[in-house]
Amino acid sequence: MDKATEAAISETAAELKPAARAWRFYYLHAFLENFLPLALILLIWEGVARLEIIHPALFPTVTEIFTKMWELTLEGIFLRDVLHSLARLLSSVFFAMIVGTLSGLLMGTSRWIEKLLVPPLNFFLAIPGIALFPIVILWFGLSEKAIIFTLAFEASLSIMLNTWAGVKSVDISLINAGRALGASGYPLFYKILLPAALPAIITGYRQGFSRAWRILVAGEMLASIGTGIGFRIFEARAFLASDVMYAGVIVIGVLGFLLERVALRSLEIFTVQRWGMVREL
After folding, report:
1. Which of 67-76, 144-153, 261-270 has the lowest mean pLDDT?
2. What angle do CA 234, 235, 241 make, to 5 degrees?
């Protein structure tokens, strides 16, 4: 390796170091910003529980809850439940992202498809997702398919709605500018419409994920399929194991928080926020 190449590599490395430090600082700041309020809530919880204002069987201390959580983790119970719940969630949201995004894009670019799909979309959005679950059970039985189908269907509605709204809200001046520069058909779609609608599409992904996550827990309670965080909470209720119930609720909150803030928020940071399409939060 000659000296010129070594100098170029050293210069590139020197440029990357400040950027890496900036990203580490950002994520550390974001971690502290989100962790401290939650830690404060847990401290207040611990203090109130130790005062025994509420019966300990109904309101255990945070220490007892995390001790039980650790015991269940060592036994492999919580880990198995978390993996099964995440597998159901991610597989259903994956299908929802494909179906919802494609349907929303078609609605936003085709007037007759929009007229055809908007009424049923509004109809199903008005129905709570868990209300459809007993009907889906009639089709698929008490199975994984029933849960995944319900989650995917419900998540796709939010994604479809936001994608459609994003495409329809693209500034007409951008479209006219693209046409003036010779873009039409598919180039106009992927160079103008899709990038401009991306903030709304990502918002749809976040809402679809949240909708599916809430329904997942209720679905696992109703289906009683033997695994999953929702099933574990419902089973603990029968034995008045409040520490297990609270542990399950905390795990649900932590997982949902991490998936939303780490995965989906990072997608937003590296795309629309980086491109200056949304303000930094």
Report:
1. 261-270
2. 95
CA-to-CA distance for 53 and 69, rounded, in angstroms?
23
d(CA 211, CA 83): 19
Q: Where are the domains of the chain?
A: 1-53, 60-273
Q: What is the DSSP string of 77-122?
A: HHHHHHHHHHHHHHHHHHHHHHHHHHHHHHHHH-HHHHHHHHHHHH
CA distances 75 to 57, 220, 270, Å, are: 23, 21, 38
Query: What is the CATH T-level fold of the domain 60-273, as seen in this structure?
Result: MetI-like fold (1.10.3720)
For the chain, the helix, strand and coil percentages under 3-state DSSP, each to the nearest 5 = 85, 0, 15
pLDDT tens per residue across span 196-225: 778 888 888 888 888 888 888 888 887 767
